[in-house]
Specification:
The protein has 185 residues and is mainly alpha-helical. The chain is built from nine helices and no strands. Keywords: Sigma factor, Transcription, Transcription regulation.
Length: 185
């Protein structure tokens, strides 16, 4: 791609698009804004392809570019939304958002989940997304966010504690339902 191979850029775009889109939606709260950010990043990469330096972790580089693009062009604070667009979640992995959406069968559960998520900081939401949906290890999170491994670990740990306390009864209900379903079948 650095040598000007447009097919290489297209292959990279197609390979990473779904993950970048999911990450972009988490950062922006908007499918359209995430798509725009991805397109801007790839156009910028193509325009600068001859001046780019080789990178060790292309995926981490792209995530950092998307994040930088979104936060340098966005005016309003980010909010996490539950996206039900199949284009975003067509991968075979189950994201924490999909799990939360599945849990939102009743208005009461929906209210509890939204209340728990609202207690997390934007940074906690971002790190939860990177760690559990994107399956990033702490070194990759360090590369993407610029925070130390220890800070990322502590931030994720604190976010999980908040969610566990606030969603205790929801989690208990899911466990009971799983046990009953297992017993019936």
């Amino acid at each position: 791609m650095i040598a000007g191979d447009a097919d290489a850029l297209l292959a990279l775009y197609e390979y990473s698009y779904k993950d970048l889109l999911s990450y972009g939606v988490q950062l922006t709260g908007s499918l359209d804004a995430a798509k725009d950010a991805i397109n801007d990043v790839f156009l910028n990469i193509w325009e600068r392809h001859s001046r780019l330096k080789p990178v060790k972790n292309v995926r981490a580089y792209l995530f950092a570019c998307i994040r930088r693009n979104i936060f340098h062009t966005k005016e309003q604070p980010r909010q996490v939304i539950m996206v039900e667009d199949p284009e975003v979640y067509s991968s075979s992995e189950t994201s924490y958002e999909e799990i939360l959406i599945a849990m939102q069968q009743s208005d009461e559960t929906r209210r509890k989940v939204q209340a728990a998520l609202s207690k997390l900081t934007d940074r906690q939401k971002e790190l939860i997304e990177l760690k559990f949906y994107q399956n990033k290890d702490y070194r990759e999170i360090e590369e993407i966010t610029g925070m130390t491994v220890k800070t990322a670990y502590n931030t994720i740990y604190n976010a999980i504690k908040v969610l566990a306390v606030d969603l205790r009864d929801v989690i208990t209900s899911l466990i009971v339902w799983a046990v009953i379903s297992d017993f019936i079948s």
